[in-house]
Amino acid sequence: MIDLKNVSKTFSGQNGPFKAVDDINLHIEENELFGVIGESGAGKSTLLRFINALETPDSGEVVVDGINVHKLDKQALRLHQKQIGMIFQQFNLLNNKTVEENIRMPLELYPYKESIELDRVLDFVGLSDKRTSYPSELSGGQKQRVGIARALITRPKILLCDEPTSALDLGTTTEIVDVLKKAHENFGMTIVIVTHELDVIKALCTRAAVMEKGKLVDVIDVARADVHEEFRTYHERALEVLRDA
Fold it and tell me: What pTM, to 2 d.p., does this model score?
């Protein structure tokens, strides 16, 4: 489904050039829930952005469904990007638009033949009662669910998630993980999630790539945990930590 072949990317930094991604080979199966993990600066987000061509590698190939993404002309690239949804750490909502208007934005930019009905996607993410609300009236978790609904409404083949829970508290993270897992079960898309939160990977993914300083150091088969076992209440976690002798 997704093949990264010897991809590398160098950026200019304050101390000179540095390799954000260093000669990585990686295969992601169709309909897989795949994680990319590592500390800040490991190159995770750059690797993710290769898939939807928001970043172009200096060398190597990015092949999706047998097509070399970075050799597409503008029209073909637009069609490729239409098949990919993206969820961001900071939600990327327009504050002057309602929940409904934010979710419908992709449909206003391009025609989609198999989009999901607005009422269905609002119900799916649990925001039917917030459709006329503005982002300033929402919690962080609700904002992220708007972002998920906006990505899902086009019925993408691939869903890319860039640190989707990093700005959220533990309880809200549980909700978002549940929504993403349910989206995978209902819509059968390939999901690639970048995060440094190991609990999120354990609850959601079947495999995970480990990155350090731009290099791929391992691909792990994840022993998935029940999200509700992994994400306990704040009170339960506080008791465990504070009472631990």
Answer: 0.90
Contact (CB, 8 A) for 79 and 85? no
Is there a contact between 193 and 203 (Cβ–Cβ < 8 Å)? no
User: Strand pairing of 158-162 and 2-13?
Assistant: unpaired
Half-sphere exposure of 124 (CA within 13 A, CB side): 25
Q: How far apart are CA 98 and CA 231, in angstroms?
A: 31
pLDDT at res. 235: 65
1 in Cβ contact with 29 (< 8 Å): yes
Q: Which residue ranges make up each domain of the chain? A: 26-54+78-242
Mean pLDDT across 198-205: 93
pLDDT in tens, 62-87: 999 999 999 999 999 999 999 999 99
Amino acid at position 185, single letter: E
- Reported as a single tens digit per residue, the pLDDT across 93-135 is 999 999 999 999 999 988 898 899 999 999 999 999 999 999 9
Handedness of CA 67, 72, 78, 79 (dihedral sign): negative
CATH class of 26-54+78-242: alpha beta
Sheet architecture: strand order including 33-37: 84-87, 158-162, 190-195, 33-37, 207-212, 215-221
CA angle 33, 221, 175 (to 5 degrees): 40
Question: What is the C-alpha to C-alpha distance for residues 23 and 110, in angstroms, rounded to an integer?
Answer: 35
The closest of 115, 121, 207, 195 to 156, measured between CA atoms, is: 115
Strand partners, 73: none
Give dist(CA 176, CA 124) in Å, integer: 12
Q: Would you say 213 and 225 are in contact if contact means Cβ atoms under 8 Å apart?
A: no
